[in-house]
Write a structure and sequence with these properties.
Layout lengths: L1 E12 L5 H6 L1 E11 L2 H6 L8 H13 L6 H13 L6 E7 L13 E7 L2
Length: 119
Amino acid sequence: MDRVALRGLRARGHHGVFPEERERGQTFVVDVVLGLDTRPAAADDDLTKTVHYGIVAEEVVALVGGDPVDLIETLAERIAAACLRHERVEEVEVCVHKPEAPLTVPFDDVTVTIARSRV
């Protein structure tokens, strides 16, 4: 399985369980790794035989900026489902970063990573 990765996609969203998170919003960062066979596209130098990662990036950003959810687990699941709707994508790994999570201790990042496939 070949991989196409999008790392560091940034968007402002209003996800979280606390009212302040929903009101103020915060920046979320998403990494997506798409699993697919890129050989047909490479052999013919044909974009239609692979995944258009520009479109995937726009969809991910739209989901982050879209309807709020309580959990980043839910957001990750929505992103994975959107990626798997692309015909050529067989599997996906999604990592949602919440670097501004409301923690009371020093931290660098909070992430949720999920892997999903068609099978």
